Amino acid sequence: MSRLAVLKGGRSLERQVSLRSGGRVEDALERLGHEVVGIDVGADVIERLRAVSPDAAFVALHGQDGEDGTIQELLDVLGIPCTGSGVLACLRSWDKVLAKHLLAEAGLPTPEFFAFSETAFEQLGAGETLPAIEERLWFPIVVKPATGGSALGIKFARAAADVPAALVAAFSYADRVLLERHVRGRDLAVSVLDGPDGPTALPIVEAVPHDEDFYDFEARYEIGRTRFECPARLPSAVTARAHEIALRTYDLLGLADFARVDLMLEEGSEELSVLEANAIPGLTETSLVPQAAEAAGIGLDDLIGRIVELALARGPVGTSG
User: Which domain range does residue 284 map to?
Assistant: First the structure.
């Protein structure tokens, strides 16, 4: 068996979720017989990795440093293979604006959007364009930070009067914001798992929050706040289309090993739209990837074992993947 470092925690706002994901990964790897060293990522991470000298690192580091390609770059410098996507794929999926431009260019459906930096509002008068944006997107408008995950900083602007406060909230998480047409419908997640025959789309999970109309941070991670249906009850044609879109998104962004693509199924039209892709999806008790894997007959230990095997076989990812 191998000596494996599990990278978790860190300094992002998703720290607690990452610690939970990392803890579950550690337990699974120990059950599989590996030597496991958990590392709460901080200023001493390089020193600790050199001291441990692992055969590979399992990246369970959500948010900043884990999903933006930073830790992958450091691991590549050290010559340590790691699970999941490489630097470029992480950068593409971490930056929601970049990801949406790539999706649109490739002809993949994604809600219409506009994006501006804080500097554009402060120094270039971007605020003067808001009436035109509101006319193009209609209300409600979704206002979200351009980077980050777990629905942190995302607000609904149900009318023009709500937009300034929503912008302030989003800018508290990132220096660039995304204003996106709201798609009312069903919140679907398609997990993708690599294997010997290439990536496979797992059964679709539908998240149905209780007493909320938005799948926010609390609904994602507090047990009992959301009902999950897996496989989602969908017409076979919609399932096939969702799988196709997710796999194309996975390929377009260059994702590897496993990832999650979030979609909306529009109410009344059955049109699917890609909201975003997550290169380091959660592995907590309420996370969607383990649920999808379980529905496909893949238990948590098997899932984690497969991901580690892919990393060990590949070696250091490098900066091109």
Answer: 91-109+185-297
Strands 3-8 and 56-59, by their bridges, are parallel
Could you give the C-alpha distances from 78 to 4, 39, 41, 55, 314, in angstroms and in order? 14, 16, 15, 11, 15
218 is catalytic: no
Asked if residue 282 and residue 166 are part of one domain, the reply reads no
pLDDT in tens, 79-92: 999 999 999 999 99
Supply the CATH number for residue 162's domain: 3.30.1490.20
Residue 278 annotated as catalytic? yes
CATH number for the domain including 29? 3.40.50.20
With the CA atoms of 20, 22, 28 and 33 taken in that order, what torsion angle do they form, in degrees rounded to the nearest 10? -150
Any residues with CB less than 8 A from the CB of 147 and at least 6 apart, and which?
64, 68, 94, 95, 96, 173, 174, 176
- 146 and 230 part of one domain: no
The model's confidence at residue 256, banded by pLDDT at 50, 70 and 90, is very high
Query: Of the listed 92, 176, 220, 260, which one is catalytic?
Result: 260
Residue-wise pLDDT tens digits, 89-120: 999 999 999 999 999 999 999 999 988 887 88
111 and 180 Cβ atoms separated by less than 8 Å: yes
* 314 counts as catalytic: no
The DSSP line for 77-131 is HHT--BSS--HHHHHHHHSHHHHHHHHHHTT-----EEEEEHHHHHHS-GGGGHH
Identify the active-site residue in 225, 262, 273, 305: 262
Is 282 among the residues known to form the active site?
Answer: yes
What pLDDT sits at residue 225?
65
Q: What is the pTM of this model?
A: 0.88
d(CA 290, CA 300): 6
